Q: What sequence folds into this?
């Protein structure tokens, strides 16, 4: 009889500490019972903590300075050479939009950022103005 309390105590301790923590998960009409540690491992695999890299767009809204426009190609090419020497720090190119040739300089993120270059352009090219365009984001100053 003396052993009976000890046997009961050991059986109770075995049941109390020997049980696993079972977690029940429902997915639609599927019920899964699994150990809590397994659930934590699955969640760690399926839920990465790192954020994916933000994809930068190729084209952005921006502004350029239109220095000159004409229907005469030779006149526009002369102005292009003059503009390239006057603005060596900016990209200057000749655009053709039928029937006009346009000499444009710089790639700016906004009209405000183009304003200083416009002041300089007005000294030599009096008809200069800022135009809004869709430009490559990598070219913006």
A:
């Amino acid at each position: 009889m003396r052993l009976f309390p000890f046997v009961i105590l050991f059986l109770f301790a075995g049941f109390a500490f020997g049980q696993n923590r079972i977690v029940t998960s429902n997915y639609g009409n599927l019920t899964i019972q699994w150990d809590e540690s397994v659930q934590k491992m699955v969640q760690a695999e399926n839920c990465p903590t790192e954020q994916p890299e933000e994809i930068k767009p190729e084209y952005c809204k921006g502004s350029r300075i239109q220095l000159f426009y004409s229907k005469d190609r030779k006149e526009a090419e002369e102005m292009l050479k003059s503009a390239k020497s006057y603005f060596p720090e900016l990209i200057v190119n000749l655009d053709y939009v039928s029937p006009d040739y346009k000499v444009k300089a710089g790639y700016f993120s906004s009209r405000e950022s183009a304003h200083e270059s416009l002041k300089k352009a007005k000294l030599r090219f009096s008809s200069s103005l800022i135009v809004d365009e869709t430009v490559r984001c990598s070219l913006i100053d």
Q: What stands out?
A: The chain has a mean pLDDT of 83. Residues 3-46 form one domain. Helices lie at 3-18, 36-46, 73-86, 111-124.
